[in-house]
Amino acid sequence: MINKLLRHLGLKTIDIYIIRKFLGTFFFSIALILAIVIVFDLAEKMEDFMEKNASWKEIIFVYYFNFLPYFANFFSPLFIFISVIFFTSKLTNNSEIVAILSSGISYPRLMKPYFISATFLALFTFVLTGYVIPPANKVRIDFELKYIDDAPNFSKRNVHKQLSPGQFAYIEGYDVTTDIGYKFSLEKFEDDKLVSKLMAERVIWDSTAGKWQLNNYYIRNYKNGNMQEIINGKSIDTMVNMHPKDFKMVLKSIETLNSFELNDFIDEQQMRGDDNLEAYKVERYRRFAFPFSTFILTLIGVSLSTRKKRGGTGLNIAVGIALSFVYILFMQIFTELAKANSMPSLLAVWIPNIIFLGIGMLLYKIAPK
């Protein structure tokens, strides 16, 4: 049935043959590495599972069922590259590529089934990254916190947030385990002029009432830049556009937001002046750059493996793995630079793709010769 569908799309027998080889090798490779990863991961974490009484049902259907999409996506660029090189090198060593080109098919035409396969995998990766993996990550991370990792013990220092236009909050210290902030201040501006400033020794989250309780507070109200009155007291409840989860949102938690939620979250944090904004943007841009790498790695893989070399398939795979690790290294380096605000996040995410696209175009130009 699949062959009939592909033929209706105007594909020839050689196209179908290459597509089946590409996708078949890729999914077999991914399944093999995932099986190996699960075995080693289970061996490493079995003691934690037993110690914290995790049931086999939870381990298999809660943890590993949601573990698989994450790691399949994580390994996909490497195995797209290896799959292309592996089966194309075999075609080359069996002189099948020479026969295809000798039959009148041009080198650019030879690339067509490869890029059809790459398009399918890119769309597959895009959907996984943006909409399937985030909810799976939420379940996986919750399981890890319950059965593997110790409870997180975060603390925040010198937190500045814009809660709404003209309203700014500052907390000198915040303990996320108790949801208590110290040295809290809230400033309100109208027409760039300070109209009110609230200060409190402590701010405590009341989960039952859904409000913040301020202890040892005082409020200064201003008019035309001059202080008009001071209000103080021991305790007061207040509704502020701020929630404990704002302090607990760490980079790992960003992985649990689908693309729509991530965009909304970034807009909100940009309004609030979050210090981690560039790191959040890196995650957004990565979800587009990552699928695009499928085309680049396919281009490089085909260009490397359609020429016979001394050393054959083994040498091609070795070169492919080396290039894959260089690509991953570049991704990590530029991502960290973006998180440190050393360069724009959009540029940082796309630089590795731009560099390797240049390498791919050079290899593609050389390959037919």
Number of helices: 11
- Please state the average pLDDT score: 83
Q: How far apart, in Å, are the first and last alpha carbons?
A: 38 Å
Helix content: 55-70%
Characterize the biggest β-sheet: 6 strands, antiparallel
Number of strands: 6
Q: Runs with pLDDT <50, length 5+?
A: none
N-to-C series of helices and strands: HHHHHEEEEEEHHHHHH
Strand content: 15-25%
Rg of Cα set = 27 Å
Derived structural class: alpha+beta
Spatial order of the strands in the main sheet? Answer: 1-2-3-4-5-6
C-alpha geometry: elongated
The domain count comes to 2
Please supply descriptive tags for the structure shown above.
single chain, alpha+beta, 6 strands, elongated
Would you give an account of this structure?
The chain is an alpha+beta fold and 369 residues long. It has two domains: 2-149 and 279-366, no CATH class; 155-244, no CATH class. Helix content is 63%, strand content 19%. The protein is built from eleven helices and six strands. The protein has helices spanning 2-8, 13-51, 56-93, 96-102, 107-147, 245-248, 251-254, 259-272, 277-305, 312-339, 345-366, and strands at 155-164, 167-175, 180-190, 193-206, 211-223, 226-238. The protein has a six-stranded antiparallel beta sheet with strand order 1-2-3-4-5-6. α2 runs parallel beside α5, α3 packs parallel to α9 (277-305) and α9 runs parallel beside α11. The two termini are 38 Å apart. The model has no long low-confidence stretch (mean pLDDT 83).
